[in-house]
Amino acid sequence: MQIRVPKTKRAKRELDKRAPKLVENVKKTLILHGTKTSAVLNSVLTELYHLKRDNAVKFSKKNENIKPFESGGETSLEFFSHKTDCSLFAFGSHSKKRPNNLVLGRTYDHHIYDLVEVGVENFKSIESFEYDKKLAPKIGSKPLFAFIGEEFESVDELKHLKEVLLDFFRGEVVESLNLTGVDRVFVCTALSSKTILLMHCALRLKKSGTSIPRMELVEVGPSMDLVVRRHRLPSESLLKEAMKTPDHAKKIKNVTSDVIKGKTGRIYIPDQKVGDMPLSNNIKGLKRERREAKQNKESKKRKTESE
Amino acid sequence: MEGSSYQIDLGNLMAYDPNHHFQSIPSSRGELANHCLEKGTEMVQAIANSLFSLPSTESRDGPVVKLPLPTTKLPREKHLPKPKPPTKWEEFAKMKGIKKRKKNKRVWDEQTSSWKRTHGYDRANDDRDIPILDAKSTDEVGVDPFAKRSAEKKERVKKQEKNRLENLKKAAKAGALPSHIQLAATALPITGTKKDVPKKASKDELESVAGMAATSTASGGKFDKKLPGEKPPKHSGKHRKFLPVVEGKGIGSKEKQQTEKILNQLLSKSSHEILDVNKAVTMFNVKKEKQRKKDKDANPGKSGKLKPNKKSFKKTSTKKKP
């Protein structure tokens, strides 16, 4: 066995960036397509890439052997995910049976976690919208989400799609947010039990009487109908493992850690009931013979009692 | 269509309306879009209401609010980091109660009487910089103490490397290998004997094999692209010498030499003269000279005295004059 260590500090930093951490990095997206794509699908993929510019990787070559829903066809995807360190992917393909097919998937530890296959219909690209260019949302800003429709709760596929879309467009999980930086919103409306309408709008904050500004939506980005075709939920064990949170350290009872005192513990002693305790037989005041006789009597008594 | 209560997840800036459903989808696309935008605006307003009412701090870019933790849980992308198992030294130190001591970056070097760094280039108290070693009674006579010290250091380094590898293997087994380290298996033969270890080809072997491969091509390797540093093949191929086609008129000198050589060989074999006269005369002369030299050596210097005839007991009968 040989130990292989990176020779430069830069390489070491890159490897450390990709290591599993308690608080994770932003999820990167891998955008690629199969052997056949349509014009619509090409523009969908490019616009998706534009929306996620900072943390997305777009492949331009055709990939023959990727079939996400088949057991053998996902090895390539897992390999790419490992190489580019991307945990989300969008795979586009076009065939007669499934026109304008888009498979949105997530990986866990660079293995396929779950997949949703949607068909893209009624696609309108960014160029077809006219709006004041000053309102254009900046790349990398945290979007707002609006999900409309009871189907997102009742129908399994749409519930899954909602989760996947949230994961895709969420961006970085931040603690503090600059309020001037909110300038985009994704509006997803459930049209039927299988279709949703996804719209990307810019936000315009208008002055209102109170400190809370009035919101105005201006449609800017791509708008498309997504028809859920197939989906694969993660297996139970994988789901459980992926949803583990780091906080819950095992709580030890009666132990606290104080900054000044350090680690402190509490001991509970049961009530002694001094009044009910028998007095000892080793009475020092008595002479030895009497004392010993008393002691032996007690022990004999105990012995006969136990028998 | 009630704008009553939406489920708001502020950590994700998300709003969900569970009470909406389309009785009939509006026929035109534009109407549908407008309807969705209206609903969207309401929900975004609801998010903004709760967002802007959070306590905000003023920074130079604008008001900054502290977002609460997201309520919708999303899966992680990688597994949780596993704790590293303690190394062999760490276990030993824990057992003995040895605590880590902080080392200084600069240490006083006795030899040069200056402050030098503890580790690295030009370090203090380096093993290699000791000029004089006192001889101890335990030292053997012919042993170089400096070489011994450097050999010991090499041994220590090797032992440390072995221990480090063991610790890393233990960590890898527990799934907690440090992210920048990879353990790579070196090539092992499938069977166990030394014979089966694939021997590395030497430079000569590679050259000869390359030459053989080249000559097996259709044009004998003459037009093969040579790599930089590749030497031309050794056996350039000329094992036979052919006479030039044209050389003067009639029979040329080279051809004459060739035929003469062959004829001489043929004729000498069939000749009946056993004695080669020239050769015999030269042999005789050489032997005479040798004899003369030997006599001179045996009797150094010319003496006028009468000397008895020395009778040589060596058999030189054929050379005696009749």
TrEMBL record, chain A:
Keywords assigned: Nucleus
One GO CC term on file: nucleolus
Pfam families: Brix
Biased composition (Basic and acidic residues): 289-307
Domain Brix span(s) in chain numbering: 27-237
InterPro entries tied to this protein: Brix, Rpf2
Residue ranges crossing the lipid bilayer per the database entry: none
Keyword rRNA-binding: no
GO molecular function, one term: rRNA binding
Region named Disordered: 271-307
Any one GO biological process: ribosomal large subunit assembly
Protein localization: Nucleus, Nucleolus
Protein biosynthesis is among the record's keywords: no
Cited PROSITE patterns: BRIX
Record PANTHER family: BRIX DOMAIN CONTAINING PROTEIN, RIBOSOME PRODUCTION FACTOR 2 HOMOLOG
Family, per entry: Belongs to the RPF2 family.
Full protein name: Ribosome production factor 2 homolog
UniProtKB/TrEMBL annotation, chain B:
Name of this chain's protein: Ribosome biogenesis regulatory protein
Organism: Rhynchospora pubera
Subcellular location: Nucleus
Biological process annotations from GO: endonucleolytic cleavage in ITS1 to separate SSU-rRNA from 5.8S rRNA and LSU-rRNA from tricistronic rRNA transcript (SSU-rRNA, 5.8S rRNA, LSU-rRNA); ribosomal large subunit biogenesis
Taxonomic path: Eukaryota, Viridiplantae, Streptophyta, Embryophyta, Tracheophyta
Superkingdom of this protein's organism: Eukaryota
Region (Disordered): 58-136, 194-257, 282-322
Chief site of localization: nucleus
Pfam families: RRS1
